[in-house]
Amino acid sequence: MMKEKRQAAIRLILKNRAIQTQDELAEALREKNFQVTQATVSRDMKEMHLIKVPEEEGGYRYAEPETGWNGLNDRLIRLLRDSVLSAEPAGQIIVVKTMSGAAGTAAEALDSIALPEVIGSIAGDNTIFLAAKDHKAAEIAVERIHGLIK
User: Fold this and answer.
1) Which residues in the chain come in under a pLDDT of 50?
2) Any residues with CB less than 8 A from the CB of 118 and at least 6 apart, and which?
3) Which end of the chain is more exposed for a tag (fewer CB within 10 A), N or C?
4) Helix (H), strand (E) at residue 118
5) What are the b/e assignments for 47-64, b being 16+ CB within 10 Å?
6) How far apart are CA 129 and CA 140, in angstroms?
7) How many CB atoms lie within 10 A of CB 139?
8) 135 CB contacts (<8 Å, ≥6 apart)?
9) For the chain, what is the domain count?
């Protein structure tokens, strides 16, 4: 019950404030009379699948995944965490490296997530190419992927 209240508070905090670090989130929770440790905050962030998103004025802040991601199940996220080694933008293309033989499955998982910035994908044995709408969209998609595989 306490965890649900704390996570509800986290959602409210993230909607009203730009939180850039776990320490900032822990402090904001303490301001709302939640006694938390960094480990507790880290666990909550992982369970809530929080991701870092770019801010308009530069830098990044924590946020919940967007509407299309609410249905992500733990199995899909585990699959990505277990198979994706890296994701890097290369202009309008995102190069995702996976364990050998895992690119097809990981690409299917990424396709099912329906990243709004991505317009298509191609998978080989251990590499996925994701085509983004433009270079900025590629950078945002990479941040989303990093948030999922942490």
Assistant:
1) 67-71
2) 94, 110, 130, 131, 132, 133, 137, 141
3) N
4) strand 118-123
5) eebbbbbeeeeeeebbbb
6) 15
7) 16
8) 89, 91, 92
9) 2
Give whole-number Cα distances, 133 to 34, 67, 69, 111, in Å.
Answer: 41, 19, 19, 15
Token duo for residue 50 = 């929080």
Domain span including residue 110: 73-149
Q: Give yes or no: residues 132 and 77 share one domain.
A: yes
Local structure of residue 132 (DSSP, 8 states): E
CA angle in degrees (0–180, nearest 5) for 75-22-144: 45
Give me the torsion for CA of 45, 51, 55, 60, rounded to 10°: 70
Closest CA to 96 of 84, 104, 105, 108: 84
Q: What are the distances in angstroms from CA 83 to CA 26, 28, 40?
A: 30, 34, 26
Q: pLDDT tens, 57-100? A: 777 788 876 544 444 556 677 788 899 999 999 999 999 999 99
Same-domain check for residues 14 and 33: yes
Q: CA-based Rg of the chain, rounded to a whole angstrom? A: 16
C-alpha distances (whole Å) from 140 to each of 40, 60, 108 are 27, 10, 19
